[in-house]
Amino acid sequence: MKKQRSIKTKVLVLLLLLQIPLAAVILIYNLYFVRFYNEQIAGTNRSALGSWCGVLEGDLKRMEERQLNYVMMNENFKLLASSRSMLDSHLYSYNVLQEYGELMRNNDWLYGCYIIDNDHQVFREIYGITRDTYQQKNALRQFFREYVKDGGSITERSWKVLEQNGRTYLYLVKGYRGTYSVYLADTDLLQQEELPGEPSRGIVLLHDNQLVGEPDPSWQDSIDFRGQDEPYFSGGEQEYLIIEQAVGGSVLRAAYVMKYQGFFGSLSTLQRAGSLFSIVLVFLLIFLGCYLLQRMFFRPVDILVDTMNSIKNGELETRAPEEFSEKEFFEVNNTFNNMIEQIQQLKIDFYEKELDLKQTQLNYYQSQIRPHFYVNCLKSIYGLLETGKDADARSSIIYLSRHLRYMLRGSTMVVSLEEELQYVENYMELQRIGMAYPPECVIELPAQARGVQIPAISILSFVENTVKYGMDKSRPLKIGIHISYLKDGEGDYLNIHISDNGIGFEEELLKKLNQYEVTERKGESVGIYNVMQRFWLYFGRENVLFAFSNMEGANVDIFIRLANQETAEDRK
């Protein structure tokens, strides 16, 4: 036997070998420099982006307030909104447009301003420096005419984005009583910092995670903007560090884009050498630690776990090998194997006691049913002899002898469906003798179901209850027994359907039957209770469902899950 060593010592040595170098190399050197470097870069870029966005937000907010003052306070605009003549409307709109010209001279990023009066068909415009064609301007006119055609008041609180023929604009509309003021900004003029050629850093505007304006095509397709406030990396072969921020007062976002040079790009030669050495050392230590853990700890644990799983799956003969060199694993293995042997013996004893108990229960229910049936048959034969129907009495004795032979064959507690239904027919022959209107029984049994095993005297008990308690004296009794197969998502089922045209179940009894609240104390439910108990004991309660109803008489449905027929044979 190999020398046994304490696993505690091995784990302690292993932790020392891994933790000290990893803590010193990773936490003190690589992690510190990487996090510090990235945080410094992200903080600097975020500050620059915040300052740029603050300036832009201030300009947009100032323009919004200026426009709101025009609409609400400007005398010419108010006169235009309340004007009733075409001539006055054009005069007032001209005066407003002159004031817009002064506004655009002081704000070179404004593309143009429109004054629109739907009531008098006024549409005046003024533009700053623009390179757009007449067709582009005409498309803008058509858009805003359509935008305000419904009249009413418009008080937009944020600048919106308009894309026309490859150009992107920002616009803001305010107005009331069918008179509107429109400010239009060129997004190309808003971008104070661009990324020409192969940029190292810069700021761009975004709408729905797409660039606005005309950025450099050499990099715009390689960056995937995500619309998130946290810094992230994006790009193809060349990565960029991206920091985004919403531009207040508009639907735009601004992004600070910086060309990422990699971790080593900003370090000195000595720092690069130290980083490379620490990375190689870390990988070597991790590889060594994994190898030692696998050999000294993981492998023994895996063996024990596999053994436990095999035992859980029913393979009680499985044992873990006893070739462990570690003292603790050796002791655990021996203790575990001894415990499994004891559990196996206890399980065998338990199963034997459980089978004895179920055998006793089945015999008890079987003995309750047999006297019930014998007494009924003897009463019928006695009645025939009293009335002088000797021939019928002799026939009844023959039928009864068949039943006695069936019932007294020994300790057999399950029969095939075919055999059970044969004795149902035999019982019906007994009931027909001496009756003016004998009962009828129609049986449908598929060939593939003939050999299915069920508890004896089960269907017969339901038929007997129908004859005894459910007969409607105003019409002949008709009983139907239909056997069929059903399928659902959980598997195949056998359905035993028993129906009659009698008086049906009492409502109180029907409720108790469907809630499985019947007992063996008294009345009609004794036989039904016994049949249900024997089905549950034979097939397992989870595999049998009983359903009772009244529809032109009493109806009984028994659903048996056929996938567990082999288990039922084991129960037998």
Can you describe this structure in just a few lines?
The protein has 572 residues and is of the alpha+beta class.
Write structural notes for this entry:
This protein is an alpha+beta fold. Helices cover 51% and strands 20% of the residues. The strands form 4 sheets. Strands 1, 2, 3, 4, 5 and 6 form a 6-stranded antiparallel sheet that branches. The protein has a 5-stranded antiparallel sheet with strand order 8-7-11-10-9, covered by helices on one side. Strands 13-15-16-18-17 form a 5-stranded mixed sheet.
User: What gap, in angstroms, lies between the N and C termini?
Assistant: 49 Å
**Mean pLDDT score, rounded?**
76
Tell me, what's the shape? Answer: flat
Count of β-strands: 18
Unreliable stretches (pLDDT < 50, length at least 5) are 194-198
Question: What integer value in Å does the Rg equal?
Answer: 47 Å
How would you characterize the largest beta sheet?
A: 6 strands, antiparallel
Tally of alpha and pi helices? 13
Assign a percent range to the helix content. 40-55%
Which features characterize this protein?
572 residues, alpha+beta, six-stranded antiparallel β-sheet, five-stranded antiparallel β-sheet, 13 helices
Spell out the blueprint of helices and strands.
Blueprint lengths: L6 H67 L1 H8 L3 H21 L3 E8 L4 E6 L6 H14 L6 E2 L4 E5 L2 E10 L2 E8 H4 L10 E7 L2 E2 L20 E4 L3 E8 L6 E7 L9 H44 L14 H60 L3 H18 L6 E3 H16 L7 E5 L8 E3 L3 H11 L8 E11 L2 E10 L6 H8 L10 H15 L4 E7 L3 E8 L3 H7 L1
Parallel strand pairs: 13-15
Antiparallel strand pairs: 1-2, 1-6, 3-5, 4-5, 5-6, 7-8, 7-11, 9-10, 10-11, 12-14, 15-16, 16-18, 17-18
Helix pairs in contact: 1-6, 2-3, 7-8, 7-12, 8-9, 9-10
